[in-house]
Amino acid sequence: MADGGCYCGSVRFKITGEPVSQSICHCRDCQKSSGAASVAWIMLDEGEFAVTKGILKTIAGQGGAERLFCANCGTGIAYKNANILPGMVDIQTATLDTPDDYIPEMNIQLAEQIGWEKDAHMMPGFDRFPPQE
How many other β-carbons are positioned within 10 Å of the β-carbon of residue 106? Predict the structure, then answer.
Protein backbone atom coordinates (compact mmCIF):
# COMPACT_ATOMS: atom_id res chain seq x y z
CA MET A 1 0.00 0.00 0.00
CA ALA A 2 1.26 3.47 -0.88
CA ASP A 3 0.07 7.05 -1.29
CA GLY A 4 0.94 9.57 -3.93
CA GLY A 5 -0.12 12.79 -5.57
CA CYS A 6 0.48 15.54 -8.06
CA TYR A 7 2.98 18.41 -7.93
CA CYS A 8 0.54 21.03 -6.59
CA GLY A 9 -1.20 18.76 -4.06
CA SER A 10 -4.68 19.08 -5.62
CA VAL A 11 -4.78 15.34 -6.33
CA ARG A 12 -3.93 12.57 -3.88
CA PHE A 13 -4.32 8.84 -4.42
CA LYS A 14 -3.81 5.51 -2.72
CA ILE A 15 -2.70 2.17 -4.17
CA THR A 16 -3.27 -1.18 -2.52
CA GLY A 17 -2.00 -4.62 -3.45
CA GLU A 18 1.19 -5.54 -5.21
CA PRO A 19 2.15 -4.36 -8.71
CA VAL A 20 1.77 -6.79 -11.59
CA SER A 21 4.81 -5.20 -13.22
CA GLN A 22 7.22 -2.30 -12.77
CA SER A 23 8.80 -0.84 -15.88
CA ILE A 24 10.36 2.15 -17.58
CA CYS A 25 8.59 3.03 -20.82
CA HIS A 26 10.40 4.67 -23.72
CA CYS A 27 7.45 5.03 -26.16
CA ARG A 28 6.84 8.28 -28.01
CA ASP A 29 3.38 8.64 -26.46
CA CYS A 30 4.90 8.65 -22.94
CA GLN A 31 7.64 11.03 -24.07
CA LYS A 32 5.17 13.53 -25.52
CA SER A 33 2.71 13.35 -22.62
CA SER A 34 5.39 13.74 -19.93
CA GLY A 35 8.03 15.87 -21.64
CA ALA A 36 10.61 13.30 -20.48
CA ALA A 37 12.71 10.76 -22.35
CA SER A 38 11.14 7.89 -20.39
CA VAL A 39 8.57 7.27 -17.65
CA ALA A 40 8.64 4.73 -14.82
CA TRP A 41 5.32 2.90 -14.19
CA ILE A 42 3.84 0.40 -11.80
CA MET A 43 0.93 -1.67 -13.14
CA LEU A 44 -1.91 -2.67 -10.82
CA ASP A 45 -5.40 -4.07 -10.98
CA GLU A 46 -7.68 -1.08 -11.59
CA GLY A 47 -9.50 -1.78 -8.29
CA GLU A 48 -6.25 -1.23 -6.37
CA PHE A 49 -6.06 2.48 -7.31
CA ALA A 50 -8.28 5.14 -5.74
CA VAL A 51 -8.23 8.93 -5.88
CA THR A 52 -8.59 10.21 -2.30
CA LYS A 53 -8.51 13.96 -3.04
CA GLY A 54 -9.35 15.98 -6.12
CA ILE A 55 -10.38 14.89 -9.58
CA LEU A 56 -8.26 13.54 -12.43
CA LYS A 57 -8.81 14.83 -15.94
CA THR A 58 -8.61 12.29 -18.77
CA ILE A 59 -7.34 12.77 -22.31
CA ALA A 60 -7.27 10.24 -25.11
CA GLY A 61 -3.85 8.81 -25.92
CA GLN A 62 -2.81 6.57 -28.80
CA GLY A 63 -4.51 3.24 -29.55
CA GLY A 64 -7.43 3.64 -27.15
CA ALA A 65 -5.31 4.77 -24.21
CA GLU A 66 -6.49 7.16 -21.54
CA ARG A 67 -4.03 9.40 -19.74
CA LEU A 68 -5.14 10.74 -16.36
CA PHE A 69 -3.59 13.87 -14.91
CA CYS A 70 -4.14 16.73 -12.48
CA ALA A 71 -6.20 19.38 -14.25
CA ASN A 72 -4.61 22.08 -12.06
CA CYS A 73 -0.85 21.47 -12.48
CA GLY A 74 -0.73 18.92 -15.32
CA THR A 75 1.10 16.16 -13.45
CA GLY A 76 0.57 12.84 -15.22
CA ILE A 77 -0.71 10.26 -12.74
CA ALA A 78 -2.12 7.21 -14.53
CA TYR A 79 -2.56 5.37 -17.83
CA LYS A 80 -5.33 2.98 -18.86
CA ASN A 81 -5.85 1.07 -22.09
CA ALA A 82 -8.81 -1.32 -22.09
CA ASN A 83 -7.77 -2.61 -25.54
CA ILE A 84 -4.37 -3.99 -24.51
CA LEU A 85 -4.48 -3.93 -20.69
CA PRO A 86 -8.10 -4.61 -19.69
CA GLY A 87 -8.80 -4.07 -16.00
CA MET A 88 -5.34 -2.67 -15.33
CA VAL A 89 -3.99 0.79 -14.52
CA ASP A 90 -0.43 2.08 -14.73
CA ILE A 91 0.65 4.65 -12.13
CA GLN A 92 3.63 6.93 -12.72
CA THR A 93 6.12 5.73 -10.13
CA ALA A 94 7.61 9.17 -9.46
CA THR A 95 4.21 10.47 -8.27
CA LEU A 96 4.30 8.08 -5.28
CA ASP A 97 5.39 9.50 -1.93
CA THR A 98 7.96 6.66 -1.70
CA PRO A 99 9.01 5.92 -5.29
CA ASP A 100 12.15 4.08 -4.13
CA ASP A 101 9.86 1.31 -2.85
CA TYR A 102 8.98 0.37 -6.45
CA ILE A 103 12.08 -0.55 -8.43
CA PRO A 104 11.59 -1.00 -12.19
CA GLU A 105 12.18 -4.55 -13.41
CA MET A 106 12.39 -3.88 -17.14
CA ASN A 107 12.58 -1.35 -19.95
CA ILE A 108 9.73 -1.44 -22.47
CA GLN A 109 9.09 0.13 -25.88
CA LEU A 110 12.83 0.41 -26.58
CA ALA A 111 12.03 0.63 -30.30
CA GLU A 112 11.10 4.28 -29.65
CA GLN A 113 13.86 5.15 -27.18
CA ILE A 114 15.51 8.50 -27.87
CA GLY A 115 19.01 7.73 -29.17
CA TRP A 116 21.01 9.77 -26.65
CA GLU A 117 19.27 8.12 -23.71
CA LYS A 118 21.14 4.88 -24.41
CA ASP A 119 24.39 6.48 -23.24
CA ALA A 120 23.04 8.99 -20.68
CA HIS A 121 24.42 6.94 -17.79
CA MET A 122 27.97 7.63 -19.05
CA MET A 123 27.69 11.43 -18.77
CA PRO A 124 29.24 13.27 -15.82
CA GLY A 125 26.91 13.46 -12.84
CA PHE A 126 26.45 15.92 -9.98
CA ASP A 127 24.47 15.69 -6.74
CA ARG A 128 22.90 19.06 -7.58
CA PHE A 129 24.34 21.41 -10.23
CA PRO A 130 27.81 21.42 -11.80
CA PRO A 131 30.36 23.78 -10.21
CA GLN A 132 30.20 27.34 -11.50
CA GLU A 133 33.45 28.62 -12.93
Answer: 10
